[in-house]
Structures are given as structure tokens and as C-alpha cells.
């Protein structure tokens, strides 16, 4: 182990691995961006990386020189990123420049304290951690961003373009507004405007009903003393754990027989029940954390319990209410299974059910993706705008998913 | 003077408080039991019933009314049919009101007439049986309009049939069907693989993400928001995106892999065994790592700095600090997360259903419920699978409360 902690070895190994990460990242990113034939050359990136890493350990000046050399190598010589024969010199040079800059900027940081001789355990591990951190940022950003990027870009292209070169996500900007044709078609021919409205109304109704039922329940469990309180508190969690598909079957049967299937009312009846346990669980935790003294002062001053809840507890728990509302809204907005099973009539679809309808071989891909974007955008906008509440809500309640 | 003793038993105040508590809980209890407890009992009931999708419509007599014949031989005809091919209907009756302008000349012997209203007692109707009632009538007016008027007044049918959902017929066939053969073992294995690796993967990847975001730096909030996207986005949107991304013919992932020389021909990611199972598990990890990372991050940030400062003084290296300080501190939340996520991954239906539809060796227990009930149209068998799921869950929650709740105070 201590032999591993030679500065030169550490530098070479980390450099090699890091340049490989860079090469994969840059070639995937540029492939997606330009549609040209780029691929990482694993062996070449390992070799170049080892050289760069070694150089960094000895002197920053060597790193600069080697980075420039590696960048230029992309034009003529085998380099970390390899090109198809038809790729022009401009893209090669640009790739080289990006690689050189990225390698110079990051290797200097990763191999900050690494010197040629023996390393202390601290220095060694710090360098490894900096490497892993860098890798982590690249990795997570890639796995999260790529699917969403693909979703948006596919919705803006047409089927034949996609079939021709599935890697080319560049946009033909000369089309102007025609880029958004599939959105326009969804809104006009596929009734998506009404689905948006339905989804919104159903979600808001679900939030409202959930709060209506879970606030009193949560307050009772959190504050009032009665026999069976502990058992009740636990059974909330138990109900949490019953899978929807188990309930969906009898609900389907019951709704089929009573004619509630295929109606928005039926959906609004069912959704809150799936979210009330969530609301109960989140709110009772918050209510417990509120100081009981304030409420007792209210009681002493002659308020009834219900007035205490209305005038003291609820105003104090507005942030929690916001979190619960957002979280419940998200669950209802994203709900798919029940909408899929219970709704058959295209005029009554929710957004998720509408998107599921688009998954057919007769409907072009970009429509499906445009539908997905329409379903995703509102919830993302809400999420980014109110991230603070949302994150709190997620941590407090989202044992469910 | 007697000693002052604390009051025994429950005083009026305590009773009033308990009453209020139950009052507040009652609506919630009522609605939750209506939609959770009753369906659960129903599932047990149905699982012992030989019931298919078609049986959901109970057997009923169906009637068609028409005006036939011409000139002096005009008849009103009611054609009655039993909608079920397996269940007889007993005591079928028909009642209808004839429009003005139609006068009955000769009635069917089973019917009685009272002015314009007709009542017929048709007796029993066999399974899939048919019957006809005819009246000879005279018309006073245009034949077409009267025909339309006659057909527009819907005859009312009554009859009793035994409903498969409520009768006393029970069977064990459903469970036999579910447990028979290698299929059940395979489904069980797929479920265990998916649940275990999906949960573990999400935890480990989430832990890694936590380590990245635990340090505060500029843009940390943005990155944290970005990393939550997979969890926040609707499952249907991201599942379809994955399908398109990994499509064997026009998917970008395949094009990329071919270009990079990793593979020669396109890989059918969601269509080949055992790759499909691995892919849906990866999807599960991708979609739920944000959740574990949020939880772990919340716990991580509540650990005080002083412990780490002490460790620094003692010369602990970064990995030692992680291994000997952070990890033991996180063990509680990690085990809670593991159990909760285990249960929820076990329950997961949408993801696999959307990605593969349970094909290519990805059929888990929950997907099997859908498959049996709707694809094979055997509701009873679907309910039997649901019962199996429920029993598994009971065991899990027993373990959960046994080992975890004391520790984390849930």
C-alpha cells in the first residue's frame, strides 16, 4: 500500500483515469451536440493521461506544455478522442482545445499536493477523493442531464431526421417556429390543453382534500391523548406500505360496477386516499415539533381546541402545509397507474394517461416526447421555484415513491 | 384531614380530549378504511373466486324491440337474450309502454296489457338463452315514425342471476394457478433481484451523491436541484425517454456504443434476457438515488463538526473519517432507508410496466397481478397474486417495526 503512495505513481494513475473520463465525456457530449463521429480512444487516453499526470507532479509548466501537445495531437496524431475519417479539422481542433483546457484546469486541482517522492496517507487520499469528486460531478450530471436533454431534443425533431442519425441532436434553427410543430399538434389535434387542465384540477382537488382530512387527523395523533394513539401512529405507516396495484384491482371492480370508472369524480375520490397517509405522516411530525405552550396559552385564554388549531397551529405550520401541498401535488400530477386503469375515454384523460395514449406505433416519436415534456415542465417549474419547500417535503414524507 | 392524592382514572377533561381526538380522526378513518381496508378484504374474497374480467358485468337480460311486417300483418317484436353464456337468469320480466297510435290486436299469452303498458313474465332464461315476444298490432299513423317511437321507449327488463362476486362458490384454482410451475419461482426470483439490487444500488449511489454535495460551494443548490430531477419528473415521461434512448433501431445509446466500438450490432436493451432485468434495475437506481441522497444529506448535515475536528487533531485521513465517523453515524438512517425502500421497490409497478410490460424476464409480483388480471383476464388469479404480495408485506412490516422503529423513533 505504501508503495502505491509514490507521488509519481499516484499522479500517473489518477491522470490516466481522469483523462479517460474527460475523453469519454467530451466525445459523448460532442457527439450529442454535433452528430459527428467522435469516440474515446481508451488506450490513447490512458497513455496521454499518464504522461500528463506525471508531468503535473513534477511541475505545472510541464502540464501546460503537455496539455497543449495533447490538444494539438487531436488534429493529426492519435489522441484521447478519436475521429471518424469525415470529421473536419475545425472540429478536431476545437475538441483538442477543449480537452487541453479541461485537462490543464482539472489535473492541476486534482494533483494539487502530489509531489514526486513519498506521499503521506493524507495527501494520497485527498488526491483520490478529489479525483472521485470530479468523476462524481461528471457522472451524475451526465446521467441526469442526458435523458432530459434527449427528451427535449427529440420532441423538436422529426422522425426521419432521428432515424438518419440518432446521435445528431443539433437543431435546424432555420425552421423557426416549425420546431414546435409537435407541441402545436398535441395541443390542437390531441386535446392536450384539456388534459393539462384536467390534471391540474385533479391535483389541486387532491391537495385540498388531503389537507382537509389529514390536518385534523395529524393534530389528533400529535397532540391529543387518547388510548390507541401509538397503534394509530404506526398504522399510518402500515397503510403507507400497501401497494397501489393490490388496491387498484378491487377499486377497478367496484368502480366498474358503480359506473365511477371513466369519470374524473372517481379519480378525485381515490387520489386523496393514497395521499392522506403521506399528509398525516408529514404533518404529525411537524405538529409534534411545535411548542405546546403556545397552544396551551390559547386554551387558557378561552379558545376551544378547534379554534386553537385554526388560529394558532395552522398559521405556525404554514411551511409544513406548503411542503405537504407541493408533495401531494407532485404525487397526484405524476400518478399513472390509477389513471391508466380507470380512464378509457380520451375526453377525460389526465396528462399522464394522455401521454400513455401517445405510445403507439402510429404516432411519431416526437409527439410522445413532446407529451412527456408537457407533463414534466409544470412540475419542474414548480419544483425549481419552490425548491426549499419541496426538498423539505421530500425528506419529511417521501418514504413513499 | 385526608391526605391529598392524585385523582385516579380518567377525569372528564381527559375523556373530552379523547372524544375530540376520535372526532377529528373519524373522517380520515372512515375514508381510509373505505378505500384501503375494504379493498384488502375484497382481494382476499376475490382470490378464492373463479372470476374473469368478463364476469364483472353481471348477467342481465338484454332486449331489442322492433316493428316488423307490413300492411295488415304488423307485429311488435321483443327479442330477449341472456348476456351471460354461463349463468342462467331466473324470473325474467319485461315491461314497456307502447306509444300512442299503436294498438295491440293480439298479445303474447305470457303478457298482460293495461292500456298502453305491457307486462310480460318470461320465466327463466338459460345461459346464453334467447326468447321472443310478439304482439300483432295495428297502426294509426305513419309506420316509420311509430316504429321509431316504439323503439325509442326502452323496455325495462328485470331478472335475478347469481352474481359470481357475491355467491358462495369458492375455489382454490387461483392459488394453484399462481403457484404452479416454474413461472412462480421465476417471478419470485425476478422480484427479489429487482428489489434487492434496486434498493442497494439506489442507497450506494445516493451515498456517493451525498459525499459530493456535502461540502458547500457555489452552485451546490443548483446541482442538488438537478440531481433531484429523476425523482420529481413523472415516471411516464422518464420511462418513455429511456425507451427511446435505448431503442435498438433508432436509439442514441446504441448509436453511441456502435460508434465507440463497444458493440458491433445494436443491443436490444429492454428486450433481451437477462439484460432487460438489469436495465429496469438500473432505471430504478437512477430514479430513486435522489431520494436516498436527500435523506442521507439531511442526516449528514445534522452531524456536528466537532467530531471531525477531533479526528483531524488525531490525524485521521479522509477515508478513515468517512469509514469510522460518517458511516457509523449514518447507519441508522441507512438501515431505515433500506427497509423502507426495500418495501417500496417491492411494491413498484409503474416503472417495469412502462419499460418492458413485464416481458423479457422482468415480470415481478406486482406486474404479475396486472398480467393475470387484465392480460389473461383472470381477475381471481390476479387477486391471488395480490394476496401473496400482501402476505410478504406483512412479514416485511413486522421486521420493520421489530428492528427499526425503536432505533429511529418512527
TrEMBL record, chain A:
Coiled coil feature spans: none
PROSITE patterns: ABC_TM1 (PS50928)
Source organism phylogeny: Bacteria, Pseudomonadati, Pseudomonadota, Alphaproteobacteria, Rhodobacterales
Family: Belongs to the binding-protein-dependent transport system permease family.
GO-annotated biological processes: transmembrane transport
Cited InterPro entries: BP-dep_ABC_trans_perm, MetI-like, MetI-like_sf
CDD domains, A to Z: TM_PBP2 (cd06261)
GO cellular component: plasma membrane
Superkingdom: Bacteria
Name recorded for this polypeptide: Carbohydrate ABC transporter membrane protein 2 (CUT1 family)
Keyword Lyase: no
Main subcellular location: membrane
Locations listed in the record: Cell membrane
Keyword annotations: Cell membrane, Membrane, Transmembrane, Transmembrane helix, Transport
Organism: Allosediminivita pacifica
Transmembrane regions: 12-34, 46-70, 128-150, 192-215, 236-258, 264-287, 308-333, 367-386
UniProt membrane topology term: Multi-pass membrane protein
Gene3D superfamilies, per database record: MetI-like
Domain ABC transmembrane type-1 span(s) in chain numbering: 196-386
From TrEMBL, chain B:
GO biological process, one term: transmembrane transport
CC per GO annotation: plasma membrane
Protein's name according to its UniProt entry: Carbohydrate ABC transporter membrane protein 1 (CUT1 family)
Subcellular location: Cell membrane
Family (UniProt): Belongs to the binding-protein-dependent transport system permease family.
Transmembrane feature ranges: 20-48, 187-213, 225-245, 275-298, 322-344, 379-401
Cross-referenced InterPro entries: ABC_transporter_permease, MetI-like, MetI-like_sf
Keywords: Cell membrane, Membrane, Transmembrane, Transmembrane helix, Transport
Membrane topology: Multi-pass membrane protein
